[in-house]
Write a structure and sequence with these properties.
By secondary structure, the protein is mainly alpha-helical. The protein is built from six helices and no strands. The protein has a domain of 83 residues. The protein is 71% helix and 0% strand. It starts with 5 loop residues before the first helix and ends with a helix.
């Protein structure tokens, strides 16, 4: 029982510690596929979307800070006037539509990439592309949910401020 492996290792001892010619070896070959190039382009597009998501996150923090600042006002009159940067915030918040269009373009790119040899459905390239795009889509969804929650919070606090002012 103790000599189970000794026979299989003893054949290497006499051959300078190297395997025989008829042993199995695995080598990576260059298949000539463009999967790496396509993934490079894909990750460039993903980085662009991530940058835009970062801009959207910074817009959220700016909007939240502006809202917190407006709550510290002592008079209700300034809080009833529209935020001077409101239109700028609105234009920048429309960036989410641009991100959504880019995610749809990445989906179309993924579908086109599946037709390439070695990049079909279930391949590592396809799984990578799909998981990255789904992750970005989830991040966009979470960000937009946070924006919506902030919008509802701002609206309810504004209604409370106006109601308090009219009851005086």
């Amino acid at each position: 029982m103790n000599d189970l492996f000794s026979g299989s290792f003893s054949r290497f001892r006499g051959q300078d510690q190297s395997p025989t010619q008829d042993s199995h070896t695995i080598e990576m070959t260059n298949s000539g596929s463009t999967g790496g190039v396509n993934l490079d382009r894909f990750f460039e597009d993903v980085e662009a979307v991530k940058d835009e998501l970062g801009d959207l996150e910074s817009l959220y923090t700016q909007l939240q800070a502006a809202h917190e600042q407006s709550k510290t006002l002592h008079s209700a009159k300034p809080s009833k006037t529209p935020v001077p940067h409101g239109r700028r915030y609105l234009r920048r918040s429309q960036k989410s539509k641009v991100i959504k269009v880019r995610l749809e373009a990445l989906d179309r790119s993924n579908a086109a990439n599946r037709s390439l040899p070695g990049c079909g459905p279930g391949s590592s390239s396809d799984r990578t592309r799909t998981s990255v795009v789904n992750g970005l889509r989830k991040k966009l969804h979470d960000t937009m949910t946070r924006f919506n929650d902030l919008r509802q919070k701002m609206g309810s606090e504004y209604r409370e401020t106006v109601q308090r002012d009219t009851t005086r």
